[in-house]
Structures are given as structure tokens and as C-alpha cells.
Fold TonB-dependent receptor.
Amino acid sequence: MKIINSYLAVSITAALSSVPAFAFAAEDTQDTKDIEIIEVSGDFHRRTLNETTSSVSIIDKDAMQQRHSQHLQDTLNSLANVNFSGGTSTARFIQIRGIGERSQFVDPVTPSVGLIIDGIDYSGLGSAASLFDIDHVEVFRGPQSGRFGVNAMAGLLLLDSTAPSSDFNGQFQLSAGNYSEAMGGLAMGGNLGVLGNARFSISQFQQDGYIENTYLERDDTEQRDELSARFKLDTELSKDWLLQTVLHYNDVDNGYDAFSLDNTRETLSDEPGFDRLKSQALRLQLSYLGFDNSRVEMSVNYLDADTGYAYDEDWTYEGIAPGWEYSAFDAYFRDRDDKTAEVRWVSDEPESLFGIDSEWVVGLYYYDKSVQLTRDYFNWDLGQPSIFNSDYDSNHLAIYGEFTQHWSDRVSTITGLRVERYDNDYLDSRGITAEPEDTMVGGNFSVRYQASDDSYLYATLARGYKAGGVNGEALGKAEDQGLEELENYLLDRSTFAPETLWSTEFGVKGSSADGRLTSRVSAFYHWRDDVQLKGWVNRDQSFVGYIENAAEGTGYGLEAEIRNQFTDWLAVFASASWLKTEIEGFVTEDGTDMTGREQAQAPNYQLNIGFEGWLGENFQWVIQADAKDEFYFSDSHNQKADSMAVLHLALNYHYQDWRISLWGRNLTDEDYEIRGFYFGNDPREEYVPETYVQYGEPRRFGITVSKSF
């Protein structure tokens, strides 16, 4: 542990100390025309990564291939201050700087960290984040509500698939690995005449999973079967009008059998669960390009997502402990329909306004989300299987704008504001109704100073928000059981208020004149008001969850990234973070005061460090390691995940357009936890409360063959 902490300190110090060496260098020392320019597409205006005024990371296609990343969770451990929780077959919920949900069961959830794929909002649907033919992943840390709205209070992940081009091109990929893994993918595109430029991709991924169910004598109860298809079409309707079409299809049919009474990878479930997603999505964006220095973008999105999530509630079988065991299965089926409409006016080039070169964007946004839940479960109050239904409709209307002013060649300010109104309707089969509504305000103010050609300093004040909601399941169950004391406790918590997040951030970003050294460092402090935290009631055989507004929460920390291309054949890269958080004013239902404790899913440090090299012109090697500090599983109990460190390796042979890769992840086969609960569930121990954990992936290895054409 001391070695890891020491290395983290050294890495951050190196990154910090490296910036001044080039940030204030003379601008004319070398020709910079060959420096690779990395642009951020998630900003209103396309800016380079160094020009952005918040902590942003980009994972490109090469970085994903070096880790053999098939899904978003395969990349997350390499990112500073980004974490994810288990409880599902793939990472559905993500935390940034210690803020983010960990699960969803009965009641509606508004994610703190958003997920957007090709402009379509998949927040809360992380199963859709397969990475074949994804060009890059952008990670925005800190409040992003001013740009992205209600689902981006703590940050946002944006995935863009490869854009269409006029030239015919594509790739295919085949992969095989241990645990019976097999993957195939094909992507191709080009010009389709009057229809425009198109690109289509399809991938299929299969695997047995990492669990052995000893009761059923099966090793595939956590199997993964994932199909993903994407289509993009850019059509020039005329010289002034551009229509961009996006189509998505996902069919995920995964098993779910993750938790063991013995905290091993061997389970005893007689009814293994599942984790499914079937979704179709359409995006149409019509852009008018006829103005001299601006454009108008009009877009509509539609997403239909049917999810199924189920698990063996008792994790075991009848007969394991006669007289003590029980048998129950819990399944959740959601039908989600999202409709989005947006229009924005965006400047393309700075234009003089009141004598100051300025850029702007003004937009109007509408979002309608409808979710129907059917829960099929064993009702212990009635002693029989039961069906629970709920309908949840959420309507959002927002107006937003951002104004950039260039006060000089070096100094700019960026001011953003978003006002969003939500009206929600909730109704369930227990007769619980609620109509939470409110108006939320978010935005940002940044000052940016350009120290040299590609080196910047910035300071940002930002405000994010998350909508309030309803605790229908908890209140309904208390009423059903006639528990007056419990009902009175939950009555005041039938709904919960919106949460707000304020953040201050200072950063330095830059590249050396020859482009071989890049470094980005940010320091932040944030504070949360009306913090939405998950609580649990466990009384008189009643075990239900609810969300409560704690008084506040605070956090501060550092993030650093560095890459140094020492020679043409050797490079080093690293990202590191340090985080300190605190809960204030949160008392659990059993009277435990969590004030002063760190937030859940908020490790104090995270580290990724690696070396990349070439042997001749054809052989490439990459070795990297991830490390993460211990962290609390939940805000409502004090059980922790252990610290972890894992090692990855890739050996690549390049020949013309072919690439053959031998890859390995977690080569030391470390068991590390990604989700944990604390309660009694073992009939052999008469249901004494214990900590139960879900592990991340074990040692992985395989071979991948790909060809570009």
C-alpha cells in the first residue's frame, strides 16, 4: 500500500512539474504542424482537448484495442477518478469523483453520470456501450448540466462511433479468449451516391462468464451474448442543408449469477438470473449551413429500450439448511421510451460583438421519458408470487446558452447557463401516486489563458443538478404491512428534492513544441446540497430501499494525465487521481449517523501507468497496470472493497493492413470487488449479517485478428 501511495505521489508531482517546462515556452521554437490535434466533440464548439475548461479525458481506438476492450467497463479502471459498480452483468452505473448511483431496483432513478452514444442518451443503460467501431470515448468530469442537462450532474461519458467518409473503407475483427470467449465484428462504409456517405457496423460477443454454479453443475450461468449494430448516413440535401441519420440496435441476453454465500466464484443458485437489453434507436439531425459564420441544428431522437433484470433472491437451493432456507426469485421488466427534440443556433467562427470577438450557442431542448415497470416476485407479506406495476412519465423542457468572449489573443471567458423544468407523474399498482416537479438551474463560468501555442491554464465555476423523485415502493410496502411507525417514518420521504452540485476547478493543460510530451492536471473542490443518498429499511421482515436528501456532501482532489514519447520506439503514459469526500447530515433508519464518513464508490487514489514500445517496424508491445484504493460499497453501511492492483499486456504484430494481437488482462489473477452488500442471507448461519461481494474479472487472455481495408 505504501509503495502504491508513494508512486501515486511521484506520478502527480511529475505531471505537475512537467507542465511549466513547456507551458510558457517561446511560441516560435519549432514548427508545430506535425503535432496531433485531439478535438473534443462533446463541447458546443469543437475545441482541442487542451482548450477545454474542465477535466476531460479521451480514450481513442488504439487505447481500447491495447486492453482488448469489448465493453465500456473494460476501460474504466484506466481513468482518473472514474469508478463503476457491479450488481449487473456489465457496468450499468458509473461514478465520477465519488458521485453516482450503484443500482436500480423498483423506483425510478435519475443517473448522476450520463451516457451518450452517437448523440443518443443511454443514461442508465450501460449495457449498450459495446466498443467495436467506436472511434473514441470522451469522459467529462464535474458538473456538465449546463451542456447536457439533468443526467450529467457529476459528469458524462460520450461515445462516438466511426464517422462516414466518401472513401470506401472498413475493418473486420475476430477474437477468441479463455472462458469460451468469441467475438466477431465487421464495419464498412463509403459513398452511396445521392444518399451520401454511410457507415455500418455489426458485432457479436459471446462468453461463458467467470462463475461456476456447483449446484447446477454449470459454468455458463453468467454467460454473455451481445449483438450490436449501428448505422450512420450523412446526406447533403443541398449546399446549405445536411441531414445526418443514426440507427442503433442492441440485443443483450446475459446471465446474472454473481453472488456467492461463500464469497467465491462458486455459486449455489437453483434459479440463476438474467440481465437483458433489447433496444432500437433513431437520431435525425438537420443542419442549415447557409449563414456566413453560424449554423442551425435541429434534431430528434427516439429510443425504445426493453430491459429485463432478475436474480435468485436466496442465492441457494431448498435443502441446503432444512428448516432455515427459503426460495424466491425477483425479476424486473422495464419498457422505456425516450423522445427528444432540440434546436440550437451555433456560431462557427468568432465574430465581433461590441468590439469583442465572440462565439455563442443558444438552444431549446425537450425530453420525454416514459418507463413502465413490471416486477414479478415472491411477496412474503402475502406468502405467494405477486406482480407489481408502475408507470413513470418524466417531461423536461430546457433553454440554454453559452457565450465565449476572446478578450485578447490569450484570455477568454466562457459563460454558460441552462434552465430546466421537469414535471413527473408516478402511479403504481399499490395506489401510490406522486407528481414531483421543479425548476433547476445549471451552468458554468470559466476563464482561460493561453500560455503558448498549445498550452492553457483555466479556472471554472460550475453548477450541476439532478431531478427529484419518488420513493413509491418503500411507502407502498409500509402501508401494505400496516406498520404505522415505519409508515410515519417513510411518509416524510415519499418524495425527495432535486440535488445540486457546485464545483470549482483549476487546471493546466499543454503539449511540448514537438508534441512528444503532453500533460493535463486539474484540482477541484465540490460541494453538494440536498444530497440524494440510498437508505434501507430492515424491520419486521421489511427490507426496502429509499432515497433520502442528506444535508450536504463535499469533495476535493487532483487528476493528472501525462504521456511522454521518449523515442520513436518507446513511450510512457500515466493517469492518476486523488480524492477526498465527506458525507454530512445523513442518518440511516437504524439511527447510525454517517456524518464525517467518505462517500460510497470514492477511492482515495486511482492509478494507471504503462509503457508502449516497438521492436522494428512490425512488433509492438504495451504493458500497463491499474491500481485503486479501498472504498465503501454503500452510504448506508460501512463495509469496504479492498485496494487492488492488476497488470495487463498486449503484443501486436502489424503487417500492411493486418494486425494480430495477443492480449492479457489481470495477469496476476487478483480477486477484486466491484459491488458489496451487508445483510443476512445464509441459512447455514441462521441469517447472521455478513458482507457479500461481487468480483471483477479474473485473469483473461486471448488472440485478436483484425484487418483494415
